[in-house]
Amino acid sequence: MVQGLAVIRNKKGLHTRPSTLVVETVKGFEAEIILHYDGFTANAARLLDLLSLGAECGAEIQITADGPDEEIALQATKTAIEQEFDFT
């Protein structure tokens, strides 16, 4: 198991579109990826879980990855979360 931290940089937080991109990013990994924020836990492969976090811009998200490809899964998830999405 590996852990890391990601900071949400998107101005609107982890809303539907960025959450969908996170889900698409993690679905190719064998590792189970769990996000922790403000006392809540979310499976990164489940859109509704991510939305239920209510994470806003500046939120620090703890990431836990456990499985055969955990290191690369952790990095990919961190990169996806920290994107500054521009959906105009």
Summarize the structure.
The protein is an alpha+beta fold and about 90 residues long. Helices cover about 35% and strands about 25% of the residues. Helix 1 packs antiparallel against helix 3 (about 70-80).
Could you explain how this protein is built, in words?
The chain is an alpha+beta fold. It contains three helices and four strands. The chain has a four-stranded antiparallel sheet. A hairpin with a 2-residue loop joins strand 2 and strand 3 (40-43). The model has no long low-confidence stretch (mean pLDDT 93).
Write the layout of secondary structure elements.
Layout: E1 2-7, H1 16-26, E2 32-37, E3 40-43, H2 47-52, E4 60-66, H3 70-81
Antiparallel strand pairs: 1-4, 2-3, 2-4
Helix pairs in contact: 1-3
**CATH secondary-structure class of the domain at 9-56:** Alpha Beta
Strand content bin: 25-35%
- Provide the spatial order of strands within the biggest beta sheet: 1-4-2-3
How many strands in all? 4
The unreliable regions are none
CATH overall fold name of the domain at 9-56: Histidine-containing Protein, Chain: A
Question: N- to C-terminal separation?
Answer: 37 Å
SSE order, one letter for each helix or strand? EHEEHEH
Q: Round the mean pLDDT to the nearest integer and report it.
A: 93
User: What is the architecture of the domain at 9-56 at the second tier of CATH?
Assistant: 2-Layer Sandwich
Structure class: alpha+beta
CATH-defined superfamily of the domain at 9-56 = HPr-like
Largest sheet: 4 strands, antiparallel
Number of helices: 3
Report the helical percentage.
Answer: 25-40%
Give the overall shape, derived from the CA principal axes: globular
Instruction: Report the C-alpha radius of gyration, rounded.
Output: 12 Å
